[in-house]
Amino acid sequence: MIKILHIGFSENYGGVENLVMNYYRNIDKNKFHFDFLDIYSAGIAFENEINALGGTIYRLPNYKRNPIKAARKMDDILNTNNYNIVHIHMQSAANLMPVLVALHNKKVKVIAHCHSSSTPKGIVRKIMHYINIMILRKLDIEKWACGELAGKWMWGDVFENENIIVNAIDTEIFIPNKKIREKIREECGFQDSDRIIGFVGRFGDEKNTLFLIKVLGELLKFSNKYKLLVVGTGKQYDEFKKEVGKRKIVKNVYCAGTQKNLNEWYQAMDVFLLPSFFEGFPMVGLEAQASGLPCFFSDRISSEIDVSNTSHFVSIDSGGEQEWACEIHKILNQRILRNPQIPYTYGIKYTVKTLEDKYEILKTEDSYESNKCCRE
Question: Does residue 205 have a pLDDT over 90?
Fold first, then answer.
């Protein structure tokens, strides 16, 4: 049995959380055991399911308020449970505590897995990232990323494309379904003639969610049948709703909040929008394409996400909302058949086998190094 401790979950049902849970649901549990570390002491997403699948959730004192206590507790957890691998999911290099504590343990292989291509807003976080990144790149750890752009951003010249672990989904649950579409649209109060532009994600700085309101405003100049459906929450959620109220378009916006059955919410949409300032390899973009939706992405998102060769990349510069609206209106005035074409390499069964192989190689290397030390 190979024991892996995952670090990097928050309480939000975000891209990383959904990705790792896709792995967990499909990995061979006779060979691999997953546990999870809550470094914020605030609870993590999918706790009930993690427990049901046999995983244990360990909690640290909040590392921001009690860094020394958190580090000591993590070290104790590693010493007590004899993990083979610590798999750390990172958005930036601003916090190296989990990496350094895991390396100090010396009994585990450490994976640092990058899921972003830029640092979120915050001058302190950016400064810490640029100080720490030089240290991180020199450490003897596995340097993984969700895509080439994210890999080059985090690891620079030391990144190797063979360490890209693509985000993967269970494509079957996203297959277009007319009954689910009708159910969700009825729940939202949408009419058959309404045209639904949709967003799924965390309402954070990088997601540029206020831009969605600007695009809707331009679309309403074409028709009042346009509606915006947003799924998710975050620190900018309240600001988003205030702006909707200020513009007096409440009747044209449905805020679904946090949802677990995201596959069903894509069914209600006619087009998917992601106007982010930056992304690594956004899971939601993959899910939307698997649902057969026309996708509009910010031109600052890597074209790697266009796995179906049907996506549109549009500027989010000042005034860009007009171009988004014109392109969306043009697409939705065409007859569109929802026929998703997702390469099998983005299916969870293929990717989880790749992950299993990499875990087994790391375990073999660890065993070899232990035997070598004993011989010496």
Answer: no
Rounded to whole angstroms, what are the CA distances from 373 to 63, 84, 100, 110?
34, 17, 22, 19
Nearest CA to 2 out of 74, 71, 81 is that of: 81
What is the average per-residue pLDDT within 132-142? 95
| DSSP string covering 218-282 | HHTTT-TTEEEEEE---TTHHHHHHHHHHTT-GGGEEEEES-S-HHHHHHT-SEEEE--S--SS-
How distant is the alpha carbon of residue 196 from its chain centre?
A: 23
Look at residue 317 in the predicted model and tell me its pLDDT: 95
Identify the three-state secondary structure at position 157. Answer: helix
Mean pLDDT of the chain: 92
Q: 262: which 2 tokens?
A: 């995201």
Closest CA to 286 of 338, 332, 228, 346: 346
DSSP-based three-state secondary structure for 71 = helix
Contact 112, 95 (CB under 8 A): no
Q: Which strands make up the sheet holding 32-38, listed edge to edge?
A: 57-59, 32-38, 2-7, 85-90, 109-114, 142-145
Residue 305 has pLDDT above 80, yes or no: yes
> Does pTM surpass 0.90?
no
Residue 276 in contact with residue 282, Cβ under 8 Å? yes
